[in-house]
Amino acid sequence: MPVYVVGHKSPDTDSVCAAIALADLKSKLGLETVPGVQGELSPESKFVLDKFGVDAPEAVADATDKQVFLVDHSDLSQSLDNLDKGELLGIVDHHKIGDVTTPNPVEVWTWPVGCTCTVLKAMYDFYGVEIPKNIAGIMTCAILSDTVIFKSATCTDADKQAAEALAKVAGLGDLTELGMEMFKVKSAIEGTPVRELVKRDYKNFDMNGNKVGIGQLEVVDLSLLDSVKGDLAKDIQALKDEDSNHSVFLLLTDIMKEGSEMLIVSDDASVVEKAFGVKPVDGKAWLDGVMSRKKQVVPNFEKAFAS
Amino acid sequence: MPVYVVGHKSPDTDSVCAAIALADLKSKLGLETVPGVQGELSPESKFVLDKFGVDAPEAVADATDKQVFLVDHSDLSQSLDNLDKGELLGIVDHHKIGDVTTPNPVEVWTWPVGCTCTVLKAMYDFYGVEIPKNIAGIMTCAILSDTVIFKSATCTDADKQAAEALAKVAGLGDLTELGMEMFKVKSAIEGTPVRELVKRDYKNFDMNGNKVGIGQLEVVDLSLLDSVKGDLAKDIQALKDEDSNHSVFLLLTDIMKEGSEMLIVSDDASVVEKAFGVKPVDGKAWLDGVMSRKKQVVPNFEKAFAS
């Protein structure tokens, strides 16, 4: 049985591309490894894989009796079911240290950078393994996606350098143009069911004992969402009820204006004011300059819930 | 205020030398960083620092308002007090993934190798920073100590290669001879209070909700401990009572015979038979081939306590 590499639930482009890259690297280092994905590919991820002719990873949901590497997360709530019934071999990530633990020593590469594929570029270099042209292409796209074309607060010099080096391997031209092309795909909402939009990039967190869900939709212009905003607000209320959550927050991020409108349903909406100093009106708040769930939204909520 | 690097409680030579090495590396990368140590240096660590003329790290016990890197552990029970009241910047380790979590992304380098200093050698190389001769010397000793002169089940090819490369930088000769010299210092017990022997390399674990302490004494010949074995057994009983532990185990490891005698006090000594298939007699059990707490003892107990 091969070893699986999987990213988080509600997979984004980094989770998909990092799984493909780590499976390639590990296989070349002698461990038969295949990429997996938890759930449906987003339109953006499909576009990226199509563009570079890379196969979609196999769907995986349960870790029972499997050996697995995790990429792009280390939180149990975002990981495979029954992770404790499989064997975790390692983690490559760029998020906070989550609650995954292991009985044995394993390999962990986690760096405070904007994208898992930036860490993977360094791992390829470290092991002296050449990156295939098409994998370098999808890794470049993952970095453009996760760093919002280098604009996100999470973006570091290491991300820019990795993206430039990978683009060279892949023979790519203007990265801003490529990024905008991807974000137009990501912004497309016509004909997409509302729940799919809410869950497109959605993560569950345990904050001081409270179940909190935070989704994010990134668009090139917030007005693109005007026609569905009412339905999105209704749907996160329904999702909160179904999951018995304390809160569900949905970030509608305008990557050109560089800020997010947050849609809020919560048992105690005062956490939003505690976290961001902004009082919600009608279940909404504009958060100027807030583009990163990981670096700006989650840490502020963690503190607000703990206080 | 400088940033601190600290290893685990009851510091062994790897915890001390890894803290010194990471502080050197981070400082050279531009972040003012100083090594710290939780508790007294062991005779072995003192011998190693003296041999290479390296200053002992500053004593640190509490993380409140401090920025810290952790080396050689990622378990809260082995870490600084009030870790949640300081800021964790990163972890370099070679143990299982523990229960330390962070609100923000940080740097983690954890590899399944025999010694933290093996990971640090790779980090120096990765960042292109030259290792000072005296620090290469203490890092070599840390690897010899943690891998029991390359004999431990935890020892990997990466450890051997790192030790050889470091020994070259430090201008060292025969590593087996250096290792034996260190283990003779470590084996010395004359005039040492019993509690100090028990705590010389002692760690606390939470195993399925049970408080478990596991100590280890490595000697070149088990008969060296004959005169104190009775007192050791009495003292771990006293320690168990003081700490309200479920169990305290003390491994007396014979590095030449390559096995350990385990002294046992436990609310349920059947965990020993569950873990190792050996029935204790008079609170003792000989575990043939068992030399590594981390790779052989802790995982087996974790399983036994969980079953």
Automatic annotation (TrEMBL), chains A, B:
Q: What is its EC number?
A: 3.6.1.1
Which superkingdom does the taxonomy of this entry point to?
Bacteria
Top enzyme class, one word, equals hydrolase
InterPro entries in UniProt: DDH_dom, DHH_sf, DHHA2, DHHA2_dom_sf
Keyword field: Hydrolase, Manganese, Metal-binding
Q: Which transformation does this protein catalyse, written as a reaction?
A: diphosphate + H2O = 2 phosphate + H(+)
One GO CC term of this entry? Answer: cytoplasm
- Per the entry, which co-factors are needed? Mn(2+)
DHHA2 domain boundaries: 179-305
- Keyword Manganese attached: yes
Q: Does S-adenosyl-L-methionine appear among the keywords?
A: no
* Pfam families on file: DHH, DHHA2
Question: One GO MF term, please?
Answer: inorganic diphosphate phosphatase activity
Q: What is this protein called?
A: inorganic diphosphatase
Origin organism is Desulfohalobium retbaense (strain ATCC 49708 / DSM 5692 / JCM 16813 / HR100)
